[in-house]
Specification:
single chain; five-stranded mixed β-sheet; 10 strands; Rossmann fold; alpha/beta; 2 domains
Length: 446
């Protein structure tokens, strides 16, 4: 089970820059209010908590069909629709495409150079394209779909529809209209689920099953977190305590940057997924905490300098793994050199764990707040725990700030602006504004 180690956030350990017990105790009323909102489902978007009880038969059946018919699986999505699936894949099936089929490609932007590279790799006759968009109206994803539809249609003709799976809102959106008109295979993201909270829906679970990752284990881990974090007592609820500590560091200590630093290459993309979840959910009404992705030990050799001697505005969140599942002994070679001999006969696991502990030590001894989330191993069960833990923590922290952790008004404005530049007459004022900005901007041509 996931563990939260928070001693290095407290004044007893790091001195006056740490939090006191009384500061946390003063939050009790706010904690109880936020807890009530969650337990009573005061927000329909809290439906993400109920994903842990979903049936996955349809997703598993679709995955088997894809594996039987395809050498390539191409996911088209952006934001949570792509970052969540990528986090699962990289955590549990690193280098999947070198050892297994179907090869999995995730196109999560609209860079034409990248798309042409994808098109040069896939075989249209043996490719399934999964279009993932919760809203069904995301311009970048729709544009990618249009390109892929035309490319495959040139080869497949009337059978093109067999090569697409649309994962979207069950009722609304342009993509749902296309599904109905062309009778395309589809999976649903429940209407009340927000895109960045959708990783444990069909948006992430289809790719997981195709990669050979057991979706039931992901959900089992997530379900145990929901159960574990249903207690109103802050000291017995690791998600509430995690959020409360970061809330206090932000509001009372002015530490408004959270560095997410897993000590595992496989969690690098999960760290990036967390950053979208944190930023888009909490950055409202003048509130918010800036998330920053990192990975250990790599970034000990770059970012650590900033954390130690830069502005006092950060909290570092470490993720540690007890058992990496594999290990490598450092051989006894070049023994006549001191630097080599000191490492020989130790293991890489010892080295990476020592790197983590030494970083925590130097930070704590210099009064730099940090805390650690620990999981026993990298498997589907514990990845499911991490995903749900961060989603629940995000929602709870939003309630502490007094913001809606489920909307994204400026993201929607950005989406509308893209469409407005092309077709929507109602947004022509924005188009003119952008054109004026472009014309009036200072440009140095070298």
């Amino acid at each position: 089970m996931l563990e939260l180690h928070f001693g290095n956030m407290m004044e007893e350990v790091i001195g006056e820059k740490g939090l006191s017990l009384s500061q946390i105790e003063r939050l009790r009323e706010q904690v109880l209010d936020a807890h009530k909102q969650i337990q009573e489902r005061k927000w329909k978007e809290l439906a993400f908590l109920d994903l842990v009880h979903q049936k996955t038969d349809e997703i598993q059946k679709m995955a088997e069909q894809v594996k039987d018919s395809s050498d390539y699986f191409l996911l088209l999505g952006i934001g949570g629709s792509a970052m969540g699936p990528k986090a699962i894949l990289e955590a549990l099936k690193p280098f999947h495409n070198y050892i297994s089929k179907p090869r999995i490609l995730i196109y999560d932007n609209i860079d034409p150079r990248t798309l042409h590279a994808v098109l040069s790799i896939i075989d249209p006759l043996r490719t399934t394209v999964n279009v993932v968009t919760k809203s069904g109206n995301t311009a970048e994803t729709i544009a990618s779909f249009m390109v892929m539809w035309q490319r495959l249609q040139k080869v497949l003709g009337q059978d093109t529809f067999k090569r697409f799976v649309i994962t979207t809102n069950p009722h609304t959106g342009i993509m749902r209209e296309v599904v109905k008109a062309y009778n395309l295979p589809s999976l649903c993201i429940p209407s009340d689920i927000v895109g960045r909270y959708s990783v444990l829906s069909a948006a992430g679970l289809l790719l997981a099953e195709i990669a050979g990752i057991d979706s039931s284990e992901l959900l089992s881990g997530a379900r145990d977190i929901v159960d574990r974090c249903s207690n109103a007592e802050i000291w017995e609820n690791p998600a509430y305590l995690f959020s409360a500590l970061l809330f206090l560091m932000s509001t009372e200590e002015k530490r408004n940057i959270n560095v997410m630093m897993p000590y595992a290459d496989g969690l690098k993309h999960l760290s990036e997924w967390f950053c979208q979840l944190w930023a888009e959910s909490l950055g409202k009404l003048g509130f918010g905490i800036t998330p920053y992705p990192s990975v250990g030990t790599t970034d000990q050799h770059s970012q650590l300098q900033l954390w130690m001697e830069g502005p006092e505005d950060k909290v570092v969140i470490f993720i540690n793994i007890d058992d990496y599942g594999q290990d490598e002994c450092i051989p006894d070679v070049f023994a006549n050199f001191d630097g080599f001999s000191s490492l020989s006969e130790h293991t890489l696991t010892e080295l990476i764990k020592t790197g983590a502990e030494s970083t925590k030590y130097v930070m704590s001894s210099s009064a730099k707040p940090n805390m650690t989330i620990k999981i026993p191993r990298l498997d589907a069960y514990h990845i499911g725990q991490l995903l749900m833990y961060f989603e629940l923590s995000t929602a709870f922290l939003g309630f502490l700030f007094g913001v809606n952790p489920f909307n994204q008004p400026w993201v929607e404005t950005g989406k509308n602006s893209i469409f407005g530049m092309f077709t929507k007459a109602c947004l022509q004022e924005e188009k003119l504004g952008i054109e004026l900005m472009q014309k009036s901007g200072v440009c140095w041509k070298l």
